Amino acid sequence: MNDGVTNCEVTHDLARGHSSATLLEASKLGIALSPELRSLWAGARLCGPAFTVQGAGGDNLALHHAVLQAPPGSVLVADLGGARFGHWGEVLTVAAQHRRLAGLLIDGGARDAAEIEALGFPVFSRNDSILGTRKDFRGVFGRPVTVGGITVRTGDLVVGDGDGVVALPSAEADRILDRADARVAHERELMARVREGRSTLELYDLEGAGR
Ligand SMILES: O=C([O-])CC(=O)C(=O)O
Ligand SMILES: [Mg+2]
Q1: 71, 68, 75, 55: which is closest to 156 by C-alpha?
Q2: Is the CB of 115 under 6 A from ligand 1?
Q3: What share of the chain in percent tops pLDDT 70?
């Protein structure tokens, strides 16, 4: 029985639990997707290696195929041209969970937000829409796609949370994660000083900054 398989079973966070904002700052790269790509439901965390999908706006046959093509643990990263249609819903979510996929990032619309939240499956989309789709274009998989203005390749590490979404190039991921570890440790120190009454201007050496 695979019933009840959800993302909650994922115990190993490939991004070491770091937030999208920490990873962006640590990277010093242009890896932030457009802020218009948001979680379909509050509190979702998306984390995993990308499996890229080129679809066509208003047509979701590519996503039905992608669920079967993507390796377990991967995040579907789909370019649907930003189209405002319900390209993804509850049924595809159940199919993706059965295949143990980690989530969906779609430059386009999705629907069934309440049902997908109840299933605990992270979906980050440009918009939502109840409009149904054609089923004509079978899609192209594993080629670079553009989502939220950023090029994402299969294997890039995608992380999404309440602040936004970043895509770490696979060759840079370890370096960024190490820098994120150091950044979090440094900020813990800073916040301890702030709680003692020190100012952020002093701690960031900003007292002489600006005009
Ligand atoms: O129309 C579709 O193929 C998508 C959909 O509604 C679902 O996944 O529930
Ligand atoms: Mg449906």
Answers
A1: 75
A2: no
A3: 95
CA distances, 103 to each of 15, 35, 44, 73, 159 (Å): 14, 18, 10, 8, 10
pLDDT at residue 12, as a whole number: 81
Pick the CATH number of 7-169 from 3.50.30.40, 3.40.50.300, 2.30.30.240, 3.40.50.2300: 3.50.30.40
CA 94 / ligand 2 centre spacing (Å): 11
pLDDT at 10: 47
Predicted ipTM beyond 0.95: yes
Which is the closest atom of ligand 1 to the Cα of 87? 4
Q: Indicate the domain borders of the chain.
A: 7-169
- Helices and strands, number each (H, E), in the chain: 6, 10
Q: Does 22 contact ligand 1 (Cβ within 6 A)?
A: no
Residues 6+ apart with CB under 8 A from 189: none
**Residue from 104, 111, 123, 135 whose mutation best tests the ligand 1 pocket (most atoms within 8 A of CB):** 111
Q: What is the pTM of this model?
A: 0.93
Evaluate: CB of 129 within 6 angstroms of ligand 1. Answer: no
What would the mean pLDDT of 164-176 be, rounded to a whole number?
A: 98
- Tens of pLDDT, residues 22-58: 999 999 999 999 999 999 999 999 999 999 999 999 9
